[in-house]
């Protein structure tokens, strides 16, 4: 059944739609239609949802029904709304658009688009040799059925060795290979969180983690991160665990996505102790742990301080290697891994054997590959921060000591409006509200430094021009109605 958004709900999402910056003054119906398209663009209004009736939305927005009717008509003409008499109107994409990996709708013909919505690197040159070597290894697996719910033993041994090298002794029985880190999180949630369970997350946090929690109908509470290098407020975080006693907490302590913060060792130990006292399971996302920059020394893994099987670590190949290689993993106690494998059978049985063998060869060459990635990312980060300092000096940036993203504080609550305007000049952005709940974080923007330095400088130049245009644009404002006696 198609879900429906009520008039008051859509009005809340639209916010001050009448005052959004634009290139020129437009009629109210066009501004309303543009605001709805903007909600679709940044993922805050889902596809396939039924919009409120024209009269209901007009009452919620306190505007004329004629304005809503004209806005709906424009949305139908642009292909963002389908209507059927007696059935209502529901959101959709134009035939010339698709859903990108960011979840945003994007034009099909986007070869000139600089995509800053995806925080991932292109494949390393070592991938092709690894794929050829994996193909040579494949014949010894062809005599079996090919189902390995916890993963092929070579890969589990390689991943376990990586944890052991970081100071966390790990056996292959504690590793389950998954089809990416997101798949690892989904399986852990199936095992550890009943529908409607209470979950603590950071704010901001990874948007796809929020989507996975929403699919479990989780009741989400947040711990707000500081914008400076401090990141977590220890007293507030520990207090949230002790007082809220969530069933689960999802944290990204290693170069947090999107802020780039690195949690200190002392706080990691205290978080584990507080979680044990509160009866909370910790899901620790280590997607960026291989990418410290500038010689940054990493604290011990959070699971180092775990004595009661409260910590489940997830990671994968997407960030240091390549997103197209869908290999992730879970590190947990051996009994938890077996329970995860049993839960997995109802989802996808096992990860592809050939992909796992490619991962084995890449991990064998990890020191060289990751060192080159770190050098590349450090140069691109510096190029991006330098461009921002030159072209947009009013934006506040704290350069992270690792990871792949900057969390930029803008000079106003314009993130979504900026993203919509930037799309018109060939730059795709992930606005701040995608990283939080309820449309907050409009003063922030995530900018990855995973593209070549020249592309990053060009993107910043286009953003600077768009920001200047937003300042010059006339902004319609509400006015008090005149009193007529």
UniProtKB/TrEMBL annotation:
Gene3D superfamilies: Aspartate Aminotransferase, domain 1, Type I PLP-dependent aspartate aminotransferase-like (Major domain), Winged helix-like DNA-binding domain superfamily/Winged helix DNA-binding domain. Residues 26-94 form the HTH gntR-type domain. It comes from the Bacteria. The keyword Cytoplasm does not apply. Keywords: DNA-binding, Pyridoxal phosphate, Transcription, Transcription regulation. Pfam families: Aminotran_1_2, GntR. GO terms for molecular function: DNA binding; DNA-binding transcription factor activity; pyridoxal phosphate binding. The keyword Zinc does not apply. In the C-terminal section; belongs to the class-I pyridoxal-phosphate-dependent aminotransferase family. This is Transcriptional regulator, GntR family. It comes from Micromonospora haikouensis.
């Amino acid at each position: 059944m198609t879900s429906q958004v009520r008039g008051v709900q859509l009005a809340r999402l639209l916010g001050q739609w009448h005052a959004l910056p634009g290139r020129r003054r437009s009629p109210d119906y066009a501004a309303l239609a543009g605001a709805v398209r903007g909600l679709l663009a940044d993922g805050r209004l889902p596809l396939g949802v039924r919009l409120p009736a024209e009269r209901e939305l007009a009452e919620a927005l306190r505007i004329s029904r004629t304005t809503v009717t004209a806005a709906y008509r424009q949305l139908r003409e642009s292909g963002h709304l389908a209507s059927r008499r007696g059935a209502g109107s529901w959101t959709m994409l134009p035939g010339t658009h698709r859903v990108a990996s960011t979840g945003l709708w994007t034009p099909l013909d986007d070869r000139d688009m600089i995509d800053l919505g995806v925080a991932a690197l292109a494949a390393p040159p070592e991938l092709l040799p690894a794929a050829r070597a994996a193909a040579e290894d494949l014949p010894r697996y062809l005599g079996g059925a090919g189902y390995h719910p916890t993963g092929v033993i070579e890969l589990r041994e390689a991943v376990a060795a990586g944890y052991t090298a970081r100071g966390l002794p790990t056996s292959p029985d504690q590793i389950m290979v998954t089809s990416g880190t997101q798949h690892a999180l989904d399986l852990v949630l199936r095992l550890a969180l009943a529908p409607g369970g209470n979950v603590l997350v950071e704010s901001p946090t990874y948007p796809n983690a929020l989507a996975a929690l929403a699919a479990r109908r989780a009741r989400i509470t947040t711990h707000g991160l500081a914008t400076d290098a401090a990141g977590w407020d220890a007293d507030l975080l520990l207090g949230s665990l002790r007082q809220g006693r969530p069933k689960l907490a999802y944290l990204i302590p290693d170069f947090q996505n999107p802020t780039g913060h690195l949690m200190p060792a002392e706080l990691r130990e205290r978080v584990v102790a507080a979680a044990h006292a509160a009866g909370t399971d910790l899901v620790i996302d280590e997607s960026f742990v291989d990418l410290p920059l500038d010689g940054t020394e990493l604290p011990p893994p959070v699971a180092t301080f775990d004595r009661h099987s409260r910590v489940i670590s997830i990671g994968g190949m997407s960030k240091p290697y390549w997103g197209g290689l869908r290999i992730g993993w879970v590190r947990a106690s051996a009994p938890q891994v077996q329970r995860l494998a049993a839960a997995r059978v109802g989802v996808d049985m096992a990860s592809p054997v050939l992909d796992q063998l490619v991962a084995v060869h890449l991990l064998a060459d990890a020191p060289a590959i990751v060192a080159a990635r770190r050098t590349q990312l450090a140069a691109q980060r510096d190029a991006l921060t330098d461009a921002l300092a030159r072209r947009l000096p009013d934006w506040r940036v704290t350069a992270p000591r690792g990871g792949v993203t900057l969390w930029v504080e803008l000079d106003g609550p314009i993130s979504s409006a900026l993203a919509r305007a930037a799309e018109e000049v060939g730059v795709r952005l992930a606005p701040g509200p995608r990283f939080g709940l309820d449309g907050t974080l409009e003063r922030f923007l995530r900018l990855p430094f995973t593209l070549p330095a020249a592309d990053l400088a060009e993107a910043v130049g286009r953003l600077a021009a768009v920001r200047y245009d937003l300042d010059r644009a006339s902004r319609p404002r509400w006015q008090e109605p005149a009193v007529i006696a």
